[in-house]
Amino acid sequence: MRSKEQERVSIAYEFVESVKNKEIEEKYASLVKKLPAMIVHNGLLATLAFLKAKSNNGKENEHSLLLKHILEYLKKANHLKDSKYDSFIQLVNTESFTTERYLHITREVLNFAVWLKRIAEGELKDDEQV
């Protein structure tokens, strides 16, 4: 049986590999490097709202892809029934959603974000390496 940490690494690696050789690889790598700090300084909900606001409707960009990856991770970690932004917002707005649960999910995503960052630093080209 795999540990939670092994699951996080596996999922993060899968997501980073899916970005390799895409047009947005460098911008995605740069954004992922900032993700842990964004979550710590702004909170998870504000970070997801920022990514959603910066997403191009219909056209994939680094913000929409990172948002998709975070939401897919939350689904795989059994925090969401599906990987839709609206589902997360609905979850947060339910009466049964506690501060403790929000903090737990934030810690989960922060731990995942650290692995995304580490793997992206080793696997992806970014703006600073050009």
Automatic annotation (TrEMBL):
The keyword Chaperone does not apply. InterPro entries: AF1862-like_dom_sf, CRISPR-assoc_prot_Cmr5. Keywords: Antiviral defense, Cytoplasm. Gene3D superfamilies: AF1862-like domain. It is found in: Cytoplasm. GO terms for cellular component: cytoplasm. GO terms for biological process: defense response to virus. It holds the Pfam family Cas_Cmr5. Signal peptide: none annotated. The keyword Cytoplasm applies. Belongs to the CRISPR system Cmr5 family. This is CRISPR type III-B/RAMP module-associated protein Cmr5. It comes from Hydrogenobacter hydrogenophilus. The lineage of its organism: Bacteria, Pseudomonadati, Aquificota, Aquificia, Aquificales.
